Amino acid sequence: MSTCAVAAEMLDLALGLPATLDITAAVVAQKSTDHLLLQECALEMCSISILYQGRL
What we know:
This protein is mostly helical. It has helices at residues 3-15, 19-52.
């Protein structure tokens, strides 16, 4: 979990706004999913780049 997500969660709890925890959790989950997809694409492209050594 990112620092921003932890800060948002703590702020929501401190202000007594439990409904915003659901929103924060959904945003963090989507962000994590997007990050993993981008990381997977980068790893695939790096291996292709190494194998073909720029001969595409």
